[in-house]
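Hey,
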Amino acid sequence: MIVADIFDKGGIIVWILTGYSLLALTILFERLLRYSLMGRPGRRAEQQLQTALREGKAEAFIQTIRGPEGRLLQGIYQAWQEGGADLNRVAVRIGSFELNKMEKGFRTLGFLGNTAPLLGLLGTIIGMIKAFMVIEQAGGQVDAQALAGGIWEAMLTTGVGLAVAIPVLLLLHLLESASDRRAQNMRNFASLLLEHLGKNTTDTCTTDTDAVHHRDGVVHAV
């Protein structure tokens, strides 16, 4: 079977699923490029931050931290220097903004991955209905080979839908895991700095869903 046959037999459903895959690939490529360019702290950055805090060199070290973790720490420290009354709120606000940027497009990828199999199934159901209509019109006297051909054509859209959905959902899961790890890093760094600055962190987040993302309705940075 060649590609032209897939589009010819699959009809409009296959064209829609092709659009799904192109949109998903665009988002995934943009996200992967964004993650690779946004920078990240070094492996020993957390221990180095603790050392810098003890030695009174926090400000200089914070300026060297890259990525959203660095921007979060810089925002907290700047708010403290300006006499901010509630650094926890500052941390949540900045962290939420950074997570928003990291998770941009996740909802769209989830929608594409979850609806692609359903769209393929819809195409299959429509194809099967047509095949049985042909059987009824022929009075039940249908060639087995022709019937088999009609059935595989109907099943084609389900196969295409799954072929689109599986890699999209897999890559989305990997991106979500990466976002969760960065959220944990942000939380750890912010906690260290807030404790050093002598602020109360007990009201920041108290549940196991501290790093809840857009897909669950709320975002918390720390």
